Amino acid sequence: MSHDGRSGRERPGTGAAGRPYRPMASDYSGPGVEAELTGVIGGGEAGYDTLYTARASSTGGRSGRVRTDDGLLDLEMRAPEQLGGPGGASNPEQLMAAAYAACFHSSLTLVAGQEGVDTTNASVDTVVELRRRGRRDDYVIGVDVTVHLPEVEPRLAGHIAERAHEHCPYSRALLGNVDVGLHLA
After folding, report:
1. Spatial contact of 51 and 26, defined as CB atoms under 8 Å apart
2. Which superfamily, per CATH, for 16-53+91-184?
3. Which of 49, 91, 100, 178 has its CB 3.0 to 4.6 Å from that of 174, i.e. a possible disulfide?
């Protein structure tokens, strides 16, 4: 059910709204730097009202900390052993997987409710992969989303999963930028 036929290895990295990826400035000083680099303040799509803004700051990248401005998230970051790091702490791919799973599950619940389907026993699993092409610094993200709707007939479950994928803000943000596979369990 992937919405982009190219694999993550075939697509160059792009940023939000399909703009080419630009590495962050080396003097990163916290949230808002992307807006400063791109000239986009507020980051909203035309016609959308901002309902909530999350702010986070990283120090040390994969070997540091990430914190939200409200202090509710404050995590040590370490590159996983698979990337030659020490492991033992969270990493950006885990954070993305957790955030995407939660957001997609909320969209699934909304869409299923519109169809009169109970999602009490539903779950959403995500897999986020960091991929590299060749030996260059050409990295992209690949994502798989697996929807579990155990009491729902498979055809209806597939319909609900597709609608949730179309509705989910994370799915929409990634569309065309990241290879997202959508599966039913």
Report:
1. no
2. K homology (KH) domain (3.30.300.20)
3. 178
